[in-house]
Model the fold of this input.
Amino acid sequence: MKSVRALLLATVLVIGASVLAGSVPADAQGLVDSGVVSEDVSYWYMDNDTVQTIFNPSTQWLDEWIPTGAVLLKVQQTVYDEVYCAALLGLQGEADPNNPGYLYAYSVTNINWGNPFYSGLSRFEVYWDIEPLLVTTSARQTPAGWQADDSAGYPAWDWTLLPNTPGLLPGETVGGLWAVAPAGPDDVVDAGAQMVIGDCIVPIMGQTTGPVVPAPASVVTLLTGLAGLGAMRIRKRK
Done:
């Protein structure tokens, strides 16, 4: 028993020292990141006059493309499980114990889109094919002036502090854009951003990740049945 206690104490001390040092052992990483289901980073960039998206690019790609000025936005998306979702929303008094979900947290960095004198990103939206349970912002992280759009039917956030001033300028980041979904697994989904220049709205389209709609049980049963029939026919031919 003493040896087990000593081993546990040593493990805790190693993890604590590693956290203070800014690193965590690989075998202890799960203890620290237990609430994170997945995380992806996408970059939106111009190539041949069209906006393209690359997910989790290599350092070599970033070193080649960032200096060209063609990279417009960076979008980071992190999914937290139902326990962490309830805890984070509970800090703001928004947790709903009767309707738990997965928290999709987005942050957007304006790398090179707009002009610091008169234009910046003023809206970000993610086109889920299911309606979110909640769209909000982090009270601790999201800068003043950014608010959730509850009427869109999908996650969307607007710059609303001063309509005639630029929103997210190059070099700036807005984080804590939160949306809650009933589904945890994620996949590539379309997303959009807007920039206001005078009376004109300039949109661009890119991609990030969002919740996947699970297939209905009846469809899964049908596909399984068809697969079984196919296997039976193959066996008969043999």
The chain has two domains: 1-34, 35-219. The longest strand covers residues 36-47.
